[in-house]
Amino acid sequence: MAIIKLPFIQENKCYTKRLQKLKSFFLLLQKSTLFKMKKICSLLVLCHSFIALAQSPTFTWSEGNSSIENELNYSIQNYFDGKRIFNVKSIYNDKIFNKDVFVDIFSPNDDFEKDESNFSIGLEQPVMGLNTKTITALFPLSNKEYVYFVTEFNSETKEFELFTQKVNIDTGTKTKLSFLTKMPAKNAFNIGDYFIAQSENNQFYGIVSRPTGEKKLNEKVTLYVLDSNFKIVKSKEYEFGFTTKQSFDIKIHITNNGNIALVRELDLPKIKPYKSLFYWDTKTENITEHNLKQNLDFQLSQFKWKESDNGSYFIASVSDGKRKVTIDLGGALPEGNPVNELLLMHFDATGKITLNIKTTLEKQNNLNFEKVFLKDNKLWLLCNEMYTGNKRLPAPYPSKPLERPIEYSYISTGFSVIKIDTTTGKIDWFTRINNLEPRAINDNGDHLKYLYFFRNNQLVLIYNDSRDINPNSKYFVRDSRFAVTSIINNEGEIVSTNDIPNSGVGKTYNFCYELDLSFALPVDENNFIVRSRCGNSARYGYLKF
Questions:
Q1: Which range is least confidently modeled, 109-123, 142-156, 300-314, 514-528?
Q2: What 3-state DSSP class applies to 100?
Q3: CB 394 within 8 A of CB 380
Q4: Are the C-beta atoms of residues 442 and 407 closer than 8 Å to each other?
Q5: Which of 145, 204, 352, 355 has the most CB atoms at less than 10 Å from its CB?
Q6: Which residues contact 165 (CB under 8 A, 6 or more apart)?
Q7: Phi-psi region for residue 403, left (φ > 0), alpha (ψ -120 to 50) or beta?
Q8: CB 56 within 8 A of CB 49
Q9: How, if at all, do strands 133-140 and 66-67 pair?
Q10: Reported pTM
Q11: Cα four-point dihedral sign 299, 271, 425, 281
């Protein structure tokens, strides 16, 4: 019998005992002449799992650290140009009634030192009394450029105008404003709304212009499709069968071929509120309404879109809305997001529905949609189970009693992954990772999230797991977060969950950095830039597979 040789595995204290058992098992098998092919296959799978265990991802961290400006409630996007990291932060500032946009720039080749801090790329405002320009939306382009959609109330013409402007996040230079469209407005406080979206392939932009309507008249809007050069290629006026008082927000989606879908919640007389979807096929000019009202007055609490080569997938959660799960976050009692069913719809390139199916789930107390991937004709839906809450704190300064800060709290009970067959709409499997985490405060929940990677046809999740360190000693540390990795295979099995050895994160009595899960910037196929945090201090480094 041929001798079966084990691949080289670097031993350490965590694996020694298991590896010795595996080696002994192989020696016994070599002496046997009666083992079957099934046993050989099982051994290969077992051996592969040990190899994967030994080849855990590794972290390397910079020697220095950088200060972190306040990121609470900011919308943050990160960009790596191969040389430097650009941290783009935007937030609505109610003191100036506009979006603030800032950039932090770091140099990985210089121990991640900060080149620029809070470099402002917002709009320059005119002197008091003149028309004010407002950033309504911003989207990333390429080559360190963003596009701003800018609105302005023209007091002379009584019109609400919309412009585009390109901005370089490296230099801060901006192009001249380019006019797009306008609509009538009554005054500076009654101007209407623009709703804007970017397609998944960045080739189209969808805009809905909604002027201030009359209370008793049906709502009228204008829909626009822009190409990648921000030129209007299609437009259409449309009148809904309800007033502006019967529907408020508009959720807009534009497909990769330039069609527009709108989701509205309708509050009509004698009917419990429900959502409806309006689809505009720009080739035929037809707008079709698809009623999303559910049986027993169940509600669509959240939804995601995912583009494919043959159309668009619409995934929504359906809830009975009767049971709201709450968790005490130290005074804040946030509501959970219970889910009874999943709704999957597929629209072809013309807006025709080719799939419309609901699948019952064992009721989940809190399932928040985060990411949707399309892989091998299957949809992978990644969800967190994070609860969020807030409470108003006492005023820190007696002289300013009205300036009471808000404390934001976060807690997570784990993560869920759902795999859906796009042909049948049925769920292949539902896998949950139970990971109850203690409360985090004012960190955007960044320590309670996860990093996700598809490798070797498996989903790799990296997240934090909390535990007490050095109990019954003077070096006791409660709830220190350490990096953990879980691997979910194509069949939904959690094939391994292990600590990442020597990850360089986790609080001790004299060290407080924990893994920040807000981003992982790809450098190449196997390397990613990551961040750890301690209060207002950050260390950057690399995650390597």
A1: 109-123
A2: strand
A3: no
A4: yes
A5: 204
A6: 147, 148, 150, 174, 175, 176, 177, 178
A7: beta
A8: no
A9: unpaired
A10: 0.86
A11: negative
